[in-house]
Amino acid sequence: MALTLYQQIAENIKKSENILIVFPKLFHTDHVAASLALVRSLEKIHKTVTVAAAGFVLPQKLSFLSGSEKIQNTVESLRKLLIQLNVSKTKVSDFSYEVKDQMLNIYITPENGNYTEKDVSIKRSGANYDLVFVIGAHELESLGELYEKNRAFFFEAPIVNIDHSPKNENFGQVNLIEQTATSCSEVIYSLLMSLNPKLLDEEVATALLAGITSATQAFRSSKLTPRALEIASDLVEKHAKRKQVIEQLYYNRKFATLKLWGTLLTRLRHDLNNRLIWTNATKSDFENTKTNESDIPDIFEELISNVSGAEIAMIFYEKALGVGIYVCSFGKRDLLESLKHFSPVGSPDSVHIDVEKQNITEVEQKFTRNIADILKMQDNVKKAPLTSAESRPAQTTQRTEQPRNLPDQSSAKK
């Protein structure tokens, strides 16, 4: 009998010693919380775990989560170069090395006789990790530099793909995609309960509650489900620190961040009857409020959690050598596709874009005009009358469907 998804994941964990957990470069609180809950659970069963996201900077509001300081912003080379020396005939007497003129020189002295080139072989060793968990990434490209610099590793490594988005591309060997879940934290809860309910201690329960709370906008979101409420209740019973979660996520803000948030609110603009809203932060705003661009993701999350009726929300901010843009879509629009000529990074409903060596005013004007044109074009498509050909009843024809070769599971990986 075939193993269930949970059983497949359990078997993969059982066979692994070194596990890597990664989440998108453009992350949400839910991704961080779900990843940390999984880290702590795997460490409790004596696994060595590394957790990382490209360019990660820990938001202050998430520093209360256990293990948050362990999240790395990069990982060392995921593969190693192996140099082998045949010592079956001649033993090693001495070994040393030095780095000189950007060259690594290795010196090996034999006990007797000599070594020849035939005694030396060079090859790539196995991966540093036995198993990879990818949390909340609809495609591997959303991992940013972690994937871009290690494509071969992600192609060869066994991947457990965990998500709740219907747009997930099923790139793992095991794809645990629960489309009815409100968050990745909810999916991780179900996974841990299937593995061993005792893994959900106070710290794990607190992390998962933080993820679900954030993903459902403190249980006010229209996507809230009875299942999410049941899980939240069970996590509280398991001693999740509910009060601390609410205080840290919604009430514990630096005064400097609040000042910047206030500045951006006074500059909030709209178009197309509030369907498109945006604001901006300049270098002088950062200087006056004693903040920096690392505060923008938190403010953007606040913005998208508190707007109503908008279809697209954006924040433009000045960087050292250009402009950064955060964009969120509240509908079924695929931003990765609609804005592909801007090279966006993120997910279909939330992306980040870098524009180098341009003025923020010019970028804001051009970009908002581009987004408005996209919305208007989609409106025109919806309103377009049927052509005479489209209005005629469809004619049915019989045809023989040619057999297609279905890809095997491994071909789903990029």
General description of the model:
The protein has helices at residues 5-15, 29-44, 145-148, 151-156, 184-195, 202-215, 226-237, 242-251, 255-266, 283-289, 296-305, 335-338, 360-383, 388-391; strands at residues 18-22, 48-52, 79-85, 92-100, 103-110, 120-127, 131-135, 159-163, 174-177, 269-271, 276-281, 312-319, 322-329, 345-347, 350-356. The model is unreliable at 388-414 (pLDDT under 50). A six-stranded mixed sheet has the order 10-11-12-13-15-14, with helices on both faces. It has a five-stranded parallel sheet with strand order 2-1-7-8-9, with helices on one face. The protein is of the alpha/beta class and 414 residues long. The protein is globular. It contains 14 helices and 15 strands. Helix content is 35%, strand content 22%.
What keywords describe this structure?
alpha/beta; 14 helices; 35% helix
Short note summarizing the structure:
By secondary structure, the chain is of the alpha/beta class.
Strand arrangement within the widest β-sheet reads 10-11-12-13-15-14
Discrete helix count: 14
Report the principal-axis shape: globular
Mean pLDDT: 88
Oligomeric nature of the chains = single chain
Task: Estimate percent helicity.
Answer: 25-40%
Low-confidence stretches: 388-414
User: What structural class do helix, strand and pairing data support?
Assistant: alpha/beta
Beginning-to-end CA distance, first to last residue: 29 Å
Q: Strand-and-helix sequence, N→C? A: HEHEEEEEEHHEEHHHHHEEHHEEHEEHH
